[in-house]
Amino acid sequence: MKVKIGNYPTHRFYHNWLYRWFDYSPQQSIKVKIDKWDTWSMDHSLAHIILPMLKQLKETNHGYPADLTEAKWNDIMGEMIWAFEQKCKDDWQGDYYEYKSISKEEATDDTESLFGLKLVWEDREGQQAHQLRMTNGFKLFGKYYENLWD
């Protein structure tokens, strides 16, 4: 994947007249090349692009949606950022499982025998709560998508 987005064109008050006179409308330069492998785990790939943009927007933001307070908008931005940080991790679920190495003789099923690992601890409720919080962050991203500008 390659994405190159140029700066917005300069716009001055007299440009409207010139653009109409010459039937011209300046466009922002945008070039996107998508390779076949870019869509394999598209949610993960896009998270690496979205996360730094959300962080920068939160740092430089000059406003918030009219139906929210500044504090609520900051909380929402924080939840979106947290969700995308988790998505960028290779294995956030690793905090909710613990395995130990075992020999083939200790294995009680084919999976343990194949991988040489035995599950000794898991926190399904914690993992589910974590996933629900991530899902909420992504829902907020969708809900406020058109408010992600500065």
Structural class comes to alpha+beta
Average of the residue pLDDT scores: 90
Tally the beta strands: 4
Rg, please?
A: 23 Å
**Count of helices?**
5
Q: H/E order of the elements?
A: EHEHHEHEH
> Distance between the terminal alpha carbons, to the nearest Å?
26 Å
Relative strand content = 5-15%
What overall form do the CA principal axes indicate? elongated
Detail the poorly predicted runs: none
Query: Biggest β-sheet, characterized?
Result: 2 strands, antiparallel
Widest sheet: strand order? 1-2
> How many structurally independent domains?
1
Helix content: 40-55%
Question: What this model shows, in words?
Answer:
The chain is an alpha+beta fold and 150 residues long. The protein has one domain. The protein contains five helices and four strands; from the N terminus they run βαβααβαβα. The protein has helices at 15-21, 42-60, 70-88, 110-115, 124-143; strands spanning 2-5, 30-33, 97-101, 117-122. The strands form two sheets. It has a two-stranded antiparallel ribbon. Strands 3-4 form a two-stranded antiparallel sheet. The longest helix has 20 residues, at 124-143. It is elongated.
Task: Note the main attributes of this structure.
150 residues, alpha+beta, two-stranded antiparallel ribbon, 5 helices, 4 strands, 47% helix
Question: How do the helices and strands line up, and which of them pair or pack?
Answer:
Blueprint: E1 2-5, H1 15-21, E2 30-33, H2 42-60, H3 70-88, E3 97-101, H4 110-115, E4 117-122, H5 124-143
Antiparallel strand pairs: 1-2, 3-4
Helix pairs in contact: 2-3, 3-5
